[in-house]
Amino acid sequence: MTVDLELSPKTKRAAGERCCEPVVYPDVQREQAVRMASVARALADPVRVQLVDVLRRHAGRVCVCELVPLFDLSQPTVSHHLKVLREAGIVGSERQGLWAYYFVMPGVLGELAAWLR
Amino acid sequence: MTVDLELSPKTKRAAGERCCEPVVYPDVQREQAVRMASVARALADPVRVQLVDVLRRHAGRVCVCELVPLFDLSQPTVSHHLKVLREAGIVGSERQGLWAYYFVMPGVLGELAAWLR
DNA sequence: GCTCCAGATCGACCGTCATCTATATACAAG
DNA sequence: CTTGTATATAGATGACGGTCGATCTGGAGC
User: Fold this and answer.
1) pLDDT interval class at B39 (50, 70, 90)
2) Predicted complex ipTM
3) Cα of A26 to nearest chain B Cα, Å
């Protein structure tokens, strides 16, 4: 014999009824997401955004002794921010005698920009 | 009478000798830098990057109950990440009965993408 | 050798963040 | 009104990040 039961929401859910269409599983992009997030984290400070901005605008390498006085920060702090950008692959550096020069590395920011589009 | 003095590096510096060309002062972009950094900070977590990715790929609103099981995280944690994205203006939300739907807001990511180019 | 200078690193302080459990809110259904 | 369900909020905790002063490194010049 058959029984006409009202299904509970839980049962409905188990039976396949959903509140919206199923979604693409994002696991394929997990590695890419980690990369994007690490680049974004390197840009998650106004000082570092301005550093990148100055370096890009200058279209060449810039000496640290030029960068430090642009901010109301100690020299070690600016050096720390440059290190964060370097470790994220956003900028590169080279020493020449006493001075150190920084420049934007092509590509890393482009990947983030491409994903954002 | 004139004296032929060897100038110290300090004196040279004071006399205008520099290690590189002077740099554009970045103060004009400070406000923009704060905005860019705040958007970047909202994207500085792989979970939030994947959330944005799913929402963008879906090209429409997505229910929270679809988003939570995509991650190996508790429901409050996913809700927290969605709140961070919403407060950054990256996504919007609307409630409908018991369910809440999230969707990408146009424009905010575009501004960051434009600056990166 | 010694001294000076530019820059990097260290160690400490303190605020922010990601995560959890527990609880609250708000709606739906009986 | 009571129960269940979906989401949000609160509070706690451990990890991370920005900043500084102090110190280290290594090249330049005496």
Assistant:
1) very high
2) 0.85
3) 7
Say whether the CB atom of B77 is under 7 angstroms from strand C. yes
Packing angle, helices B46-58 and B75-87, rounded to 10: 70
CATH class of this structure's domain A30-116: mainly alpha
Give mean pLDDT, residues B39-52: 98
Specify the 3-state DSSP secondary structure of A95: strand
Token pair of B51 as six digits? 């959330």
Contact list, A19 vs chain B (CB under 8 Å) = 63, 65-66, 99
Rounded distance, CA A16 to CA A94, Å? 60
Is B50 in Cβ contact with A20 (below 8 Å)?
A: no
A18 pLDDT higher than 80: no
Residue range B29-116 forms a domain whose CATH class is: mainly alpha
Q: Is 0.90 surpassed by the pTM of this model?
A: no
A76 nearest nt, CA–C1': C8
Determine the average pLDDT of the residues in A26-55: 91
Q: Burial-class residue A80 by CB neighbours within 10 Å (0-12, 13-18, 19+).
A: middle
